[in-house]
Amino acid sequence: MSKVFFVWDLFIKIMLLLPIPLITVFPNIIPFLTYRQNGDKNKSALMDTLAREMDKQQPCAYLVESCVSRPHNIRPIPWAFLRVVLHYSNSMEIIQLVSSGRRILALLQI
């Protein structure tokens, strides 16, 4: 019991010594880490990841949405739409048209 108390006591002392509150740092670090995680991937690597994921019995919706939105620099397209479209041979053209339409709607704030 005293060991647990010692760890928490040490943790609190370290928190008091930090000049910047840790709570304000976390929201700023997460977007940077997300960008760094995906920043070095080129389009062919993303398409390979997308193909591997779509070959699975139950693909991960988040991973598919991320792989599709990254090359087009758009917000993720919903999984329900991607599940239908990605099986067609011209799926990338359809996604490009949808992403262009979404940008126009965003500019018009509709």
Write up what this structure looks like.
The protein has 110 residues and is mainly alpha-helical. The protein folds into 2 domains: 1-40, no CATH class; 41-110, no CATH class. It is built from 6 helices and no strands. The protein has helices at residues 2-17, 22-39, 43-55, 61-72, 79-85, 91-108. It is elongated. The model has no long low-confidence stretch (mean pLDDT 71). Keywords: Membrane, Transmembrane, Transmembrane helix. The chain crosses the membrane at residues 12-33.
Quick structural summary:
It contains 6 helices and no strands. With 110 residues, the protein is an all-alpha fold.
Report strand %. under 5%
**Largest sheet descriptor:** none
The secondary-structure class comes to: mainly alpha
Number of DSSP strand runs: 0
Low-confidence stretches: none
Count of alpha/pi helices:
6
Walk me through the topology.
Elements: H1 2-17, H2 22-39, H3 43-55, H4 61-72, H5 79-85, H6 91-108
Helix pairs in contact: 3-4
Keywords: Membrane, Transmembrane, Transmembrane helix
Transmembrane segments: 12-33
Features:
110 residues, mainly alpha, 6 helices
